[in-house]
Amino acid sequence: MYKEQKMIDEGTTVTVIGLGLIGGALCHTFKKKGLKVTGVSRSETIAKALEMKIINDGFEYSRIPEALSGSSFVFVCTPLLDIGERLGDIFQHVDKNTVISDVGSTKSVICSIAEKHIRKGVYFIGGHPMAGSEKRGIENSNPYLFYDAVYVLTPLPGTPKKVVKKLSSLIDLLGANVMILPSEVHDEIAANVSHLPQLLAVLLTNHLAGKNNDLFRNLAAGGFRDMTRIASSSYAM
């Protein structure tokens, strides 16, 4: 675990791209801690985030370059396949000394893509908060989602320790416990403790869906609900 509390200046600008459950939860906490939060999402989601008062400013995806201006930290919280597609554009438009991270549930491929786009004075550290919900959307986000959860960081080789500490200090504000891991180690563990359980839940749900007899559904009780709760989680994420 990496738990070294360092001060993040009040007013530090954080840009969160993708305001769903995870992105919304980041906005909740960072705004509550006095940081300046810029959100990027669809227009209706931006309107909702402003109404909830969890961002200071909001931009649609087409205006990402504007949203990145002046940001010290950028979190990419879009669906997994979308993260890799956006990194090149993000690297091109961020200011020098910006720290970019993501919240994708697999890390090796994303980190490999980031290495191809990295430029001097800009940093990328992969991230995966081991927290979430089967519920989706900004309306289900809250500032306590990450509290006491493990938050894995996977720095690229050669990332300065002071940059890792800087991002770790920001994650500390979430109440999470930072763990530094190589991306391939994270992926092996996550596949077993996170992805496999979800696949089994989906398999069990689909198995019952193929039964036309209502007795199956009527007799399914707490054990079945516990086993299949995460089957409704977003595949895209």
TrEMBL record:
Chain ranges of the Prephenate/arogenate dehydrogenase domain: 12-237
UniProt xrefs under Pfam families: PDH_C, PDH_N
Secretion signal, residue range per the UniProt entry: none
UniProt GO BP: tyrosine biosynthetic process
GO MF annotation terms: NAD+ binding; prephenate dehydrogenase (NAD+) activity; prephenate dehydrogenase (NADP+) activity
InterPro entries: 6-PGluconate_DH-like_C_sf, NAD(P)-bd_dom_sf, PDH_C, PDH_N, Preph/Arog_dehydrog, Prephen_DH
PANTHER family attached to this UniProt entry: PREPHENATE DEHYDROGENASE (PTHR21363), PREPHENATE DEHYDROGENASE [NADP(+)] (PTHR21363:SF0)
Protein name from the UniProt record: Prephenate/arogenate dehydrogenase domain-containing protein
Gene source species: marine sediment metagenome
